[in-house]
Amino acid sequence: MSAGSLFATALARAYRIMPRVAGYVQTNIFVNTRGLGSFPDDLCPLGASRIELADVPRVAAAYVWGSDEPTVLALHGWGADSTTMSTVVAAALDSGESAICFDAPGHGVSPGSHATMREYAHATLAVLQRFPSIHTVVAHSMSSIAAVSAVAESDATNVRSLLLLAPTCSLSGVIDRWAAQRGMPPALVEQIHRELKRRDGMPVSHWDVRTLGLPTMVRVRIVHDPTDEVVPLRDSYLIAADVCADVHEAPGAGHHRIIGGDEMRVALAACLRPHPTRT
Q: Which helix (H) or strand (E) holds 162?
């Protein structure tokens, strides 16, 4: 165990003595996007074109596959990077689409080692506005919240389909599970909520797929492994109950392998097919 982890464990136990310090340290651990402290080489992926995104804070560039303007945006999960979405890119290309990815703030080749949900959501919004040709967004895990927020906030978006892979329903739920795994008392969790609000400018409760205001014309499909040990299947059904999404269970797909599974390909193909507008 690292010295930082030992210190954080000690603070979790001594939160009554110094609650704000404990909340600050635990929040730093939660928003850390580089568990191993590594930064990948800044190389353009095979077959992609690099597009600089100088107007998007803390995002180095976007990568586009295909000869046309991008139509499918693939968003990686928290602590990962755009390379994890390569199978989604390949599936989109196989369907005759063009695809785009980027490393979220503090992820991959983008600068920094910390990020907030607001930063990821705003970066996604900026990409949607820069490329109005995007009509389908594929998001994994926590990026589902950023995807829904960006689509809901954009007035000019042409997004008609969302494919959520093992999605988290809310940031509050993520924090609760993370804190429970570490045996944190409720008072310390509340300190983390306060610190995140200070950094993010939004209360943690804001980041909930069910209440972000997704337009009703956007079709939502969800693929989730019922035995997912990272994000419980219950999150998907909570989302579906409020945004009228179709949930497809993928037993044995796992939390990370689901990105490259056959179920993803089938669901993406369904998203790409023309469909009647929802009212």
A: strand 161-165
Residue with tokens 């269970």: 249
Question: H or E stretch including 272?
Answer: helix 262-272
The CA distance from 92 to 98, in Å, is 7
CB atoms within 10 A of CB 236: 28
- Cα–Cα distance, 101 to 48 (Å, whole number): 10
DSSP per position, 25-80: HHHHHHHB--TT-------PPTT-EEEE-TTSTT--EEEEESSSS--EEEE--TT-
Separation of alpha carbons 175 and 164, rounded Å: 20
Q: Is the separation of the CB atoms in 45 and 64 below 8 Å?
A: no
Say how far apart CA 14 and CA 22 lie, in whole Å: 8
HSE of 33, CA atoms in CB hemisphere, 13 A: 27
Angle between helical axes of 143-153 and 117-130 (0-180°, round to 10): 50
Cβ contacts of 3 within 8 Å, gap of 6 or more: none
| Model pTM score | 0.91
Query: What is the spatial distance between Cα 101 and Cα 89, in angstroms, rounded to a whole number?
Result: 8
- Spell out the per-residue pLDDT of the chain, length 279, in tens: 555 556 555 655 666 666 787 888 899 999 999 876 677 777 788 889 999 998 899 998 999 999 889 999 999 999 999 999 999 999 999 999 999 999 999 999 999 999 999 999 999 999 999 999 999 999 999 999 999 999 999 876 799 999 999 999 999 999 999 999 988 889 999 999 999 999 999 999 999 999 999 999 999 999 999 999 999 999 999 999 999 899 999 999 999 999 999 999 999 999 998 765 544
